[in-house]
Amino acid sequence: MLEVLLLPGVLSFVMSMELPPYISSCSRNDPNLNDCALKSAKESLYQFSLGDTERGFQPLDPLYVEEMLVYIPNKQGLKIVFKDNYFTGFSKLHMESLKFNLEKKIITADALVTLNVKNKYELSGKLLMIPIDSKGDSFINLKNTLLHIRYWYEHVEGPDGKIHWKIYKHDIKYEVEKGSFGLDNLLNDKNLGDQINKLLNEMWREVVAEVGPSICHALGTAVVENLSVLLEQVSYDELMPE
After folding, report:
1. Which of 1, 3, 5, 2 is closest to 225 using CA atoms?
2. Which of 9, 114, 124, 223 lies at a C-alpha separation of 20 to 30 Å from 134?
3. What is the pLDDT of residues 190-201, one digit of tens each?
């Protein structure tokens, strides 16, 4: 239920609608509500990854991030700008847990995914006092990325006169098992290029720490905007009947 991406501005107004057929509702009074919601999320994940133009959802896979900036090992060293980043893998995301605290109005989820990124790089700075300037194709692989997701929502009355959920705050944290990187045609010098790629992969934790916030911001924004549209379309009673 969480893996959706909105095409901004698609729906200028939203009429009350039933749940999409690929999402199963769960009773708010079900003692096993979280188990029911997790099952529904797992079953709907792939369909959401394909997108739903009738509902205003775009595919989540790939996810586009315009730019990410990395310094190796610091600002006095190498500067790498990753541009036009296309993340693939979200269609194979595995929901580990999904929990609803209806009293505090908080949704929490854990999800595991391996992300592959194709992008362009621009490299500048100095390596061992040698000026470096290069650009070309590159890739990033983030193996077994564990996402910790939280949403805070409130009850609001919709245009249909029914109660709807409205998300007003969200947070995503992440843990990566292993990161790997590759920059092609570095200075057209294989030896020097191999050295830079080796340094980049030896410092993968530091690199991931710098690119991670950009990824989480893009993902969080996409998901929240989509969920907002879904929650405007579907009332609380339709989403979680008594």
Report:
1. 5
2. 114
3. 888 898 899 889
